[in-house]
Amino acid sequence: MLTYIIRRIVSTIPVMLVVALVVFSLIRLGPGDPAAILAGEEATPDEIDKIRIMLGLDKPWYIQLGLFLGNVTRGNLGTSIYSNKDVSQLMGQRIGPTLVLTATTVVFAVLLAIPIGVVAAWKVGSLIDRAVMFFAVLGFSIPGFWLGFIFIYIFSVKLRWLPVQGYSPLSDGWWPFLSHLILPTVSLGLVYLALIARITRATVIDVLGEDFMRTAHAKGVSPFTALFTHALKNAAVPIVTIIGVGVALLISGVVVVETVFAYPGLGRMTVDAIMSRDYPVIQAMIMVFSGAYVLINLCVDVSYTFFDPRIRY
């Protein structure tokens, strides 16, 4: 098992190296002078040269690559062009709300999707199954930003139950903290929930047809134990896989949903950086989101060993 985990950790190194090379190439392979594009149309030659020196574009490409990889290894993600602050510092101010939103979305989606999918598989072909599948298709088809606007109109503008936008830390109290999270979490999590529910249903249906399930029923095992102990455990690998893959949806969805709700997280920071063409921030965000995705996939791969001992070898 330890050998498998070490092998999976080592395999992430070339992946992150490729990501770093792609991020490095974005500004160098694009058309035109990146410094001139970042400076704007009214910039003077001195201002363009200053940006070029700040980005290291005045050096040969191989020296630029070495400096870039060295800075990334040390955690130095550069300096924002417009705020003149360290990018790591800016991200440190925004990462908390994004982690909270992501965590609540995953918990919301997984805790609802898996029981719904299991029950739909148990009652396959019934009205419950059709209702679950209708909900799953509907949830997977509706864009998160559209749901966000609908929820804002109903629950914030009309009913005035929840705030329209913003974020409140836990230090301000439980209700202010939760009230600012409910709408973004549901808007972001419904697509994720629908995806997990559909995969759970399909996987559990396949497992229910296996011989060991018929043996369990013949021995008098209760339906609840058979479903949530025997069937769900043997269907865990595909379900965990889709939970990990669904993180890609969250990474892209966070950018949109945080913009809709004016949520002060990394997604909103990315949009602001793109609008202002703050390339060091954009470059750092690509690295962070890519690194997070690789890390989560690594955790998913390692978790396989707990559900299927054969994978350890």
Mind explaining what this structure looks like?
The protein starts with a helix and ends in a 6-residue tail after the last helix. Helices cover 78% and strands 0% of the residues. The protein is built from 13 helices and no strands. The protein has two domains: 2-73, no CATH class; 88-312, Orthogonal Bundle (MetI-like fold), CATH 1.10.3720. With 313 residues, the chain is an all-alpha fold. The model has no long low-confidence stretch (mean pLDDT 81).
Task: Sum this structure up briefly.
The protein contains 13 helices and no strands.
Secondary structure topology:
Elements lengths: L1 H28 L4 H6 L5 H11 L5 H13 L13 H36 L4 H15 L2 H15 L15 H35 L2 H8 L4 H12 L1 H25 L5 H10 L3 H29 L6
Helix pairs in contact: 1-13, 5-6, 5-8, 6-8, 7-8, 7-11, 8-11, 11-12, 11-13, 12-13
